[in-house]
Structures are given as structure tokens and as C-alpha cells.
Amino acid sequence: MTIDVVGVSKRFKSFTALDNVSLHVRSGELVALLGPSGSGKTTLLRIIAGLDWPDAGEVRFDGEDALERTVRDRNVGFVFQHYALFRHLNVFENVAFGLRVRTGKDKVPDATIRAKVEELLHLVQIDWLADRYPGQLSGGQRQRVALARALAISPRVLLLDEPFGALDAKVRKELRRWLRQLHEELPVTSLLVTHDQEEALELADRVVVMGHGRIEQVGTPSEVYDNPATAFVHDFIGETLALPTDVRDGRLYAGDKPLALDSQGVADGPARLLARPHDVDLADPDAAPFAGRVLAVRTFGPTRRADIEIPGRNGPVVVEAAVPHQQDLPTGGLIGLVPRRYRVFNANA
Amino acid sequence: MSVAEIAPPAATPARVVRRAPPVHTEPAGVRIAIIAVALTFLALVIGLPLVLVFVQAFAKGWQAYVAALVDPDALAAIELTLIVAAISVALNLVFGLVASWCIAKFEFPGKSFLITLIDLPFSVSPVVAGLVFILLFGSQGLLGPFLQDNDIKIVFALPGIVLATVFVTFPFVARELIPLMQEQGTAEEEAAISLGASGLSTFFRVTLPNVKWALLYGVLLCNARAMGEFGAVSVVSGHIRGLTNTMPLQIEILYNEYQFAASFAVASLLALLALVTLCAKTLLEKRIAKDH
Ligand SMILES: Nc1ncnc2c1ncn2[C@@H]1O[C@H](COP(=O)(O)OP(=O)(O)O)[C@@H](O)[C@H]1O
Ligand SMILES: [Mg+2]
């Protein structure tokens, strides 16, 4: 099922949580909504599910208006951020809930419910927990129950709000791969909210980067990582080394020093040159466009990082540069920085 | 290799026996004295009167005790009390549940006013509450002529007693449910409707089971108060023997007539109710802690 969000806006009192958001999700896709906390991800997900209503805009499932249908009739599987399992029902009854509440001509016979729930518990690999109550489960197990419960109504759209948010790092990684596999096996279109970039980049077919209630960029994981459309996306995804610069007459300056670097068409005024740390070489301070003092060098695992203090517009700024393992870098000394790949953005944007 | 090299650092064994310092710093004597004062106070103010009620009730022996309870007026008072409590508790169960549900799960204008209103019976003297009902429904009252014309009796009859009791005991259920429902939030309800449940089905399958123990707790307190209410009921009842006297009123009448043993015999039933309520309350509190 395709999902279309067209020009959706949502305000809470005077606060704009979503500002003219448009998004197309293809049938069978797994799309991640990625953004910092408070960027409006949950709000967008709730509007798609029908738990909230937009002030303006449209939501369409397979081209049909979804806003005129209530959450009951949208047949959307929703996995809540804190799972929202029914605390007084055991795992089996939690999963069975969506089938039990069907009445009249839609009533599901007990035997069918039992078969379906058992099948789902098997699918999410927790058959042996059927009699437990939510309070007796670990975070990862609750997550699986929440997913099985959402899948019980055979939804064609699956919405997951930070499904791994409450889990520890190792469990997260495991479940992530498992969820991807599950998505492949089921005929669903999935939309997953996360603030964890690694999760989004590893799991999703496409990533939607959100900031301040707006969509900053939509693209494949490698597109948003390698070609960030805005400074916000560059900062938010991956590590960023930000160098203060100015554009004057279409040329790039570091303070008063003209740089032999491309200003990339950015308008005159203060600008930021953004690069991935591994795209910035260390060099002789006199020959490099940027130079600064080494404050500290840290090594952890395969990476080595140096805090370098460079002069900025309003006092010195500290940037974190990648340091090759064999290079000797005394603290207190001067070092030059040469960006190989970089993007220039207006500092006020 | 010398022993000194392989021996653990000297501090290690010490750490095993070292315990966290106690959080209280008072010497043991002071602590015991404080506890003793508290216990003595409780014994004097609560324990002793309770014992005295039973001592007085049985002062003239078993036969007198039983005779006092099977006295027709006493039986009528017990019956009336049970009827009033049953009706009031049932009404307040429904009112309290609906009110807390609205308050905890929805946003609407006038919500804080409603919360204040629920607390009103706690802050108003029951006698004043009773008088208000007289002013409304009494023969000289606002609706008096209308009620008389239609031959409806409210004051000095069962409806008035129930009204007064409902008013006085209204907060018990709602007060118990609102904080729990607010804490539980609306996530489970949202999950239920996203799974296709109707509003009613969500209420009975999710909301109600989640608060059932707290609800029972509220009902218990509500019932205890409904049976024991004196002030408001005293004003609206009219003290008609064998007809509009509840147990607390009957106790007062007997006492005023110097029938101490009979008075305390009826009182012992209320004291018993208090003890049962207390036990049930303690058990329920454990269940409710689980729902939080
Ligand atoms: N019911 C609400 N009332 C008022 N403000 C809200 C409500 N829901 C969300 N917001 C605000 O909208 C913004 C976006 O929230 P949300 O969609 O939950 O962000 P995210 O899921 O990306 O962290 C936040 O600043 C939040 O405070
Ligand atoms: Mg959120």
C-alpha cells in the first residue's frame, strides 16, 4: 500500500510541530523517519495512523483519502514507543486483542484466533512466553509482543515509533536485522521512527530526515550520508567537522586569509565549511587553509581523534579531526587542516 | 613468590564486612523513645476507644447485646443503612468512574473546575450539605411546593438520605481513580482503538480492568463513609424511629436515652465494619501498587 502525505501541518497551541510536510512512501518500502527529539516524527506517525489530526493537508493510502477514516478503520499496525502493552492481559491475550474485539459479522472464531496468535508468537519467536504478563518481560520481549499484536490485524501499513528506543545496544542490533527480515517476509509498507542514525541508515530503503517540523531531505541511506542537502542533515548524520569561513565576492575566506577552496555558489556572508573527519587531512600549518592548536589526542579502538582549536569569527572554536595512527601529534603544537571533500553552507541557514 | 605478593590488598576483606552507614543518626535511645510515644498515642486515641466500644456493648452480657440488635428499631436502622449504602455506593461508583475517566483521559474546557467540584464535599461540613438539601427539597424549600403537589417525598424520607449520602461520599471513588488513570495515560487506549476496538469495548477491556483494584478501594472507603455518615443524614432524616433512622442516628438516640449498652451494641457493628474495611484496604493497597 502506498502512503502519501501532502502538505500536512500541525500546531499545538502556538507551537508548529509539523510545517507543510509532504512525503511519498512506495508500496512495500521500509522508510525511516530520522530526526532529533522534538522534530515532529511521532506527530507525523500519529497523523498517518489516525491517532491525531492535521490542521491542514492530506493523507492518502493507495490514493484514497485516509483522513475521512478513523483509526479503527485504517487497519494500520502501530507499535508504540513504550509498547503500550495491555498490562492486565497476558502475552497471548495481548496479541489476540485485535481479533477478539471484532464483533457481529466480523467475529473471529476462537479456534482461528488461537491459530493466528500461535502463528504470530512463533513468527516473533516468543511462543514460550504466551502465559506471561507484560510486567514479567524484558524490553526486547515486550517489543516482540507489541509487534505481534500490531501484526495480528493483518495491517498493510506498519508504523513503528522508536521500536528499539528502550533497548540496550546489543539487543537493538539483533532486533534491527530481524525486523528487516520480517518486513521482507510480510506484505507491508513500513514507516519507522528513530533518532538513531545508524539504525535508520542500516535498516531503511529510504531515510526521511526531519528537523524542526520540516522534512530536510529524503533519500537512500548513502544519498543522505554522502550528499546531505542541508547543513542540518550534514550535522545530524555522521560525524561533521565544521570550519568557520566567510564568503566575499564569491570567494571563500578564513578570517582575512583567502582560501583556494570552492565556495560552491554560496551567497556572500558568514559560511560554514562542513566535512567528514576522514575527508580532512592533517598538514603543515603554513601550507594548509586552516590551522589550529592541538588540545588533546584520543585513541579508542580503530579511531584516533584530536581536538583542535582554531580561530573563529566570535572567538576560538574546537573541532574534532581524524588522526592517522602512525602520525605523531604533540599536544600544544600547531597543525594544518586540508579538507579534501567538503560542503559549504550559509552559516545562517 | 612471597605471600605478600599474592595476598589481596589489605582493604579487600574489610570491604566485605563494611556496611552502608545507617541513614538515621539519632542514638538508639532517642529512636525507641520516639517510637514509644507514637505507639502510646495510637493506643490511647484509637486502640483504647475501639476496645471500650466492645466492652460497653457487652457490659450487660451476651443476651442484652443480642436483644439490642434484634430490637425492631435497631433492625430497621440496620436495614435502612444497608439500603442507603447500597444505592449510594452504586451511584457513586458510576459517577466516580465516569468523572475520573473524563478528567484523566480527555482535555476539555472547565476541567479544573470539575476537579475542584469533586473535592467540594470534602471541604463542606456535612451539616451544611444536609441543610442545602432541606433548602432545596424541604416543604419551605425551592422545590417544596412542586414536590408536594406531585406527592413526592424527598426530605425526611429515603431519597433525601440517599442524596445526602451520595453528596458526602462522592469524592471517594473519583479521588482514588483520577491519579491512577492519569498516571496510566492513554497509551493503552490508543493501542486498543488502533487494533479496531470501539470506545465502549476499549473502556471495558482496557480502562476498567486497569483500575479495578483502585475502584474497589474507592468503593470500600465510600461504603464505610456511607454507613457511618451522621451529619448530613441527621439533618435530612427527620429522626423517625423505625423509619428514617440510620445506624449512626439510632446510636445517638439510644445514647441520649441512657441506653448505653444498647447504643454501644449497635456502635460495635460500625466498629466491626471499620476493622473489616481496614483489613480489606490493606490487602487492596498491595494490589493497587502493582497497577501503578
Ligand atoms: N499533545 C501535544 N501537545 C503539545 N505539544 C506537543 C504534543 N505532542 C507533541 N508536542 C510537541 O511537538 C513537538 C514534536 O513532538 P514529537 O512529534 O513527539 O517529536 P519527536 O517524536 O520527533 O521527538 C515537540 O516539541 C512536542 O513538545
Ligand atoms: Mg517521538
Brief rundown of the structure:
The complex is a heterodimer of chains A (349) and B (292). Chain A has 349 residues and is of the alpha+beta class.
Explain what you see.
- The complex is a heterodimer of chains A (349) and B (292).
- With 349 residues, chain A is α+β, with helices and mostly antiparallel strands.
- Chain A is built from 9 helices and 20 strands.
- Chain A has helices at 41-49, 71-74, 91-100, 110-123, 139-151, 169-185, 197-203, 221-226, 231-236, and strands at residues 3-12, 15-25, 30-34, 56-61, 64-65, 76-79, 157-161, 189-194, 206-211, 214-219, 241-248, 251-254, 257-258, 269-275, 280-283, 290-300, 303-310, 317-322, 334-339, 343-346.
- Chain A is elongated and about 80 Å long.
- Chain B is built from 14 helices and no strands.
- Helices cover 79% and strands 0% of the residues of chain B.
- Chain B is an all-alpha fold.
- The interface between A and B is medium-sized, with 29 and 18 residues.
- Bound molecules: adenosine-5'-diphosphate and magnesium ion (MG).
- Magnesium ion (MG) binds at residues 41-42, 81 of chain A.
- Chain A: Residues 3-237 form the ABC transporter domain.
- Chain A: Pfam families: ABC_tran.
- Chain A: It comes from Azorhizobium oxalatiphilum.
- Chain A: One of its GO terms (molecular function) is ATP hydrolysis activity.
